[in-house]
Amino acid sequence: MLKLFMMERKYLNLIFTNHAINRLYNRGISQEKAYETFKNPDGQLPGKIPGSVKFYKSYGPPAGEAGEQRIEIVAKKNEKGE
Description:
By secondary structure, this protein is an alpha+beta fold. Helices cover 23% and strands 27% of the residues. The protein is globular, with a radius of gyration of 13 Å.
């Protein structure tokens, strides 16, 4: 069965790039999970690009066990500060 995702550039208070939407779609990750990772991460690290932050969160069984899914979101404010 084909599962289609309807993804928007703006989701709640996040703005997704086309690249990010493509990656979420290809990995079968919802914007809701991406948002949850951003708002309530297990942790965060500086991103590769100055001013960016990598947020990460694990879902499913405990870390290291089969079936665990770790989602990483890289975020940066745009030129408008959003």
